[in-house]
Amino acid sequence: MPVTALRAVSKAQNGVGAFVLQCKRLDFHYCDWAGASRGMKSFIAHKLADFAKANPQIEITVSPRPNQHPIIRGSYINGREKVICVRKLDHLQILQKAELLRNSSGQKLKKFSKPVKSMNEGVRGIFSPYHGEKHVI
Where is the Ribosomal protein/NADH dehydrogenase domain (predicted)? Predict the structure, then answer.
């Protein structure tokens, strides 16, 4: 009796089997008049088209923001926003900041006081050099 494989059609599940980018939109705001936006205007003219082609899953908007410092605002699928001021940065530094927002998850930064959290204590207990056999050198 020959063995035959069953044909299965995969079901689409959000985040299972595929990477879902957390950043959904990047907004680039600049001022036409101010010198602090010089790097942002250079980035928009030379690097933004390549960045948008490399990231088609992100909605990118560019808008003027008169008499204000240039910023990049990232919107994430969890509803949060992160804003980075790019005042007086050159176009390569602005590209790094845009990549930082793209790769970010949108979660708040958390300080971890303990590296591992567990519901159960370790079998050996907590290590201490003052307990157990004394080592002689």
Answer: 32-105
* pTM, 2 dp: 0.70
CATH value at residue 46: 3.40.30.10
Could you read off the pLDDT of 76-102 as tens digits, one per residue?
A: 999 999 999 999 999 999 999 999 999
Query: Residue 80 falls within a domain, yes or no?
Result: yes
Please check whether residue 108 lies inside any domain of the structure: no
* Number of domains making up the chain: 1
Phi-psi category of 40—alpha, beta or left, where left has phi over 0 and alpha has psi -120 to 50?
alpha
Q: Is residue 61 part of a domain?
A: yes
Domain extent, residue 74, equals 23-103
SS3 119: coil
Compute φ and ψ for 35, nearest 5 degrees: -75, -20
Report the candidate in 37, 28, 97, 98 with the shortest Cα–Cα distance to residue 67: 37
Which whole-number Å values give the CA distances from 63 to 6, 14, 68, 72, 76, in the listed order?
A: 53, 32, 12, 11, 19
Cα separation, 83 vs 48, in Å, equals 18
